[in-house]
## 1
Amino acid sequence: MSEKIKLGILGGGGDSLIGVLHRVASSMFDKYEIVGGVFNPVWEENINFAQKLGLSENRIYIDFETFIEEELKLPESERIEVVSVLTPNFLHFPMAKKLIENGFHVICEKPLTTTLEEATILESALKKSNTIFAVTYTYTGYPMVRQMRQMIQLGVIGEVHKVDIQYYQGWINPILLDKELRKTIWRLDPKKAGISSCVGDIGTHAFNMAEYLTGLEVKFVLADLNTRYKDNQLDVDGTILIRFSEYVKGVIRSSQIATGEENGLEVKIYGTKGGFNWKQENPNYLYYLTDDKPMEVLKPGHAYNGEVSLDGTKLPPGHPEGIFDSMGNIYYGVAKAIRNESYDSGEYPTMNDGVRGMKFIEKCVESHKLGNVWLDL
């Protein structure tokens, strides 16, 4: 049996949703062992959380710089191999850059950085290294999303000509209504979140899904964003028209103020011979539409699905799988890459996906500021 990949984690301590999601995901397929890291900038909280996880205190570090310094002192066979960066956006770039330059593989939360310039610097650094870099666009890990992608690649729905992706949440709405409270949220702070809240947080997921599923690149965008209040600097809602080409178009709708919505990512892709409909809140159902026969419903775990979809399905048909499994499939793909095993190009989002996401964010913000005009991506 091969030795497990030694995993370090930066951020994600306490009751962080992202933290538990990544930790559980890494435990699937028995490919990783969490060794240490820096879970919180406050030492007492950092060490207490590590103790709850049952980790050795000598691999829990007071800060990121100490993490790098001390890990590099260890023999390569004992050293942490891959690091998950789960911190607020503004820390992604400095951490990822130093990790790449020191030979660590990286699994980084999205958006990749806070600016496109930072993203391109990371891209250049990665090209000079011999490391694996993944960006956790989590929803690409769902088995039925991967099945949809494969069927589109095989031409099942013909030539794609319409893409409609909606990602609606409502969590920030009650916070936004309180003038003082909205000043306390890091996602609304440009110094920590970057130039966008909604598009940067969830709109970029929808954009990634559009390119991941269709295999096409968005060429132009036109954005209409909403900050809702004058004293709120970052967008909390947006509608973005997208063009893949002159006759292949679509729309991305994202919102953090869709009152009452939970995590409403919905994908609709139409081609010349058929279409697909998939919803993240009910992810085990992929609806296949055509003009000449009743709608079909495809589900995970059945033999009619493709190899990549089946490889990411852990339970027999009828047993629901969800967001933890989706992230687990991304970690599984990264593990294959690290161990030089064969894997499909769609098994984990790459640095290129992260850079594309940053281009999308910056062009959407620019398009809005210029008066809602078309911009070349």
Note: The two ends are 46 Å apart (CA to CA).
## 2
Amino acid sequence: MTAPAPAPPRAAPTARRISAQLRMELRLTLRRGESVLLTFLIPVLILVFFSLVDVLPTGTEDPVDFLLPGVLALAVISSAMTGPAIATGFERSTGVLKRLGLTPLSRRDLLVAKLGAVFVVELLQVVLLLAVGLALGWDPSGGLVVAALGMVVATVGFAGVGMVMAGTLPALTTLALANAVYLVLLFLGGVVVPLDELPGALQVVALALPSGALSEITHGALEHTGVPGVAWLVLLGWAVAAPLAAARLFRWE
């Protein structure tokens, strides 16, 4: 009698697959010098430079009080959209994602792992930026919980936008587009220029973007000027629509 064929290996539980991929995403992120520059150094440089050189129409007595909420929003853009979009785009073009697609790791598992890695990086960013802000004289008078909630919702939306780019476009196109969008949102996201200082048409566009909505929330929460309800609606809309689009359009190759 012939021996029965061995049973095929069982796939690891979903949580274990996601956890393993999340750890790999974090290692790869921290090894990429350009990713560290974009994610950590640029927001800090913007915060320090424009806090010490008072050249912006911030409308606050101390520039750091305006800049810190905006730079926190910029940190979300860089870590949730720009960096992951570029990295994932090149992983897709070099066949890394195609090989991952042959494993038990599903498209949903991959997207969840990448989003989890983004949240870990953002936590490090927030700690660093708050420490730098305190050193520059920022007064933490509350509102951090509301600002943090807005950043969490925005992260989901920006990650979805990044994965749509990375999962549908060639790598070099993703690189160019992600950096272009980053620069546009830098100026239309209330980071260095207050949204109410923009021309009327640009202000409407800015407030409809997730960057503008997030800026409204971080500024309103940390400066205690109140958070418009429409900002939450815009942000929640992006947080729902962008991930759904990514889950539908993302391709392994």
Note: Residues 213 and 231 are 5 Å apart (CA to CA).
